[in-house]
Amino acid sequence: MLTAIDEKNKLVNLLESSPEELTGQYFCPACKTEVVLKNGNIKITHFAHKTLQNCESWTENESVQHLTLKKILYRWFKKSEKVEVEKYLPELKQTPDLLVNDKIAIEVQCSSLSLKRLKERTENYQTHGYSVIWLMGKKLWLSHQLTELQKNLMYFSENRGFYFWELDLERKKLRLKSLIHQDLRGNILHLTEEILFGHGELLTHLRQPFSAQAPLSLPVSADRGLFHFVRQQLFHRSTKWLEIQEKYYQQGKNLLTENFDKPYIAPPGLNLLSVSDDKISSANFTQITQNLVPYYQNFLENFKKNPRNKLYPPRFYAIIKEVNNETKAK
Ligand SMILES: [Zn+2]
Question: What residues does the Competence protein CoiA-like N-terminal domain cover (predicted)?
């Protein structure tokens, strides 16, 4: 941790004070037990609990990555915003890594956490009127397939569809992965943009998915080995694929007569094979409060019926739908 309170109950921020000034006794702002100053060669100067037993706010030893990223983001925000590091919020009993402009909690997530805890922490912020932006350290970066935890750390905007933030300490970059889609094997596709640490205003970058912009697109192609893959999944009695096959049978169809020559790619939460057009329910993603049903419907109308070689953001499909409706009305 980078903050503590001194014997006079005054908050000490290590990012704003030099270590020589720090001579007294220090305490945790949350649990009030004693903390000690640590000057390491590897880790930046920080405080650590003498004992973590009674602390609801701090649970783990912080990594070098976590401490350093907090420091970098603090300085970056400070160029243009009001920012507080590890501001303890007593009504929530939570300490966001950074609190920006009194209302935006920034969480630098470098280690795994349980889905239950992620939901609790997110909902706790939301019900108290804070928004929370999760920025992911190396361990949680997107790889080939989405984990349950990653699904629940994704955000959504009309301009960018599903998106996800990553922090790359080694390369000193903030990364935005957007237009996240999945193919039938569960592999993900997305666009990647990188911003060098310290470049421009950080809050402006974080709001980028909501700012006006020309529609982006993501090129896709059909998966040549898909038919073979599906046959194999059925042969090996994969539960997921047997369920899809069962749905096909109920509709008097056979999965293996499906035309696999077109791209089968959809936004997370929408399976192009197992969904029938009139029965789309919004999937549950912890960070997403928007109703995704209109997007899923527009996507199905535009993509499944007329597969394209490009994927577009939700706004694009909404505009196409409007244009189609106007044409029909004429
Ligand atoms: Zn504590």
Answer: 24-56
Task: Specify whether 195 is located in the same domain as 78.
Answer: yes
Dist. CA 35 → ligand 1 center (Å): 8
String of b and e for 128-167 (b: at least 16 CB within 10 Å)?
eebebbbbbbeebebeeebeebbbbbbbbbebbbbbbbbb
Residues 236 and 92 in one domain: no
Same domain, 121 and 230: no
Output the CA 34–ligand 1 centroid distance in Å.
Answer: 8
The answer on 241 and 124 residing in a single domain is no
Query: What is the span of the domain harbouring residue 245?
Result: 225-257
For residue 187 the two structure tokens come to: 């592999």
Kindly give the distance from the C-alpha atom of residue 122 to the centroid of ligand 1, in angstroms, as a whole number: 20
Q: Which residues of the chain have pLDDT under 50?
A: none
Interval between CA 86 and ligand 1 midpoint (Å): 11
Q: Residue 89 Cα, ligand 1 centroid: separation in angstroms? A: 13
Cα 40 to averaged position of ligand 1 atoms, centre (Å): 21
pLDDT of res. 278: 56
Residues 85 and 111 in one domain: yes
Residue-level length of the chain: 330
Q: Tell me, in angstroms, the distance from the centre of ligand 1 to residue 170's CA.
A: 30
Tell me the CA–centroid distance for residue 55 and ligand 1, in Å: 4
β-partners of residue 87 are none
DSSP string over 113-162: --HHHHHHHHHHHHHTT-EEEEEE-GGG---SB--HHHHTT-EEETTTEE
